[in-house]
Amino acid sequence: MGVYSSDLDLNVSDVTGNGREVEVGVNMVNGNVRLSILWTDEILLSPDDAERVARSLVETAARGRRIAAVPYVSTPEAPAPEAADPLPGPAES
To answer: Does residue 25 sit in helix, strand or coil?
Structure first.
């Protein structure tokens, strides 16, 4: 099981129809928010889709703040994950 929980209601794709997608998720351990642009390093959004992504980011940020406010307690069965969870950088050409 991954530590990220994605916004499953967010279904946004590139306006050009090339299959590029946006994913917003929250790290369930430390509350960090991840914004992924899948299959590329750029996506063109309609104004309505851009607003949907913005709303999802705001809601996910609030969820992340709630998660970060609760200290993580590790057990032998579930040790604490790495404190730093680096985000992937832009795709290399």
So the answer is: strand
Q: How far apart are alpha carbons 75 and 21 in whole angstroms?
A: 36
Cα distance between residue 35 and residue 52, in whole Å? 13
Task: Tell me how far apart the alpha carbons of residues 93 and 86 are, in angstroms, rounded to a whole number.
Answer: 20
Selection from 66, 63, 67, 59 nearest residue 9 by Cα: 59
pLDDT of residue 84 exceeding 50, the answer is no
At 38-73, the pLDDT tens digits run 888 889 999 999 999 999 999 999 999 999 988 766
Q: In whole angstroms, what is the distance from residue 3 CA to residue 80 CA?
A: 11
**Rounded CA gap, 81 and 89, in Å?**
21
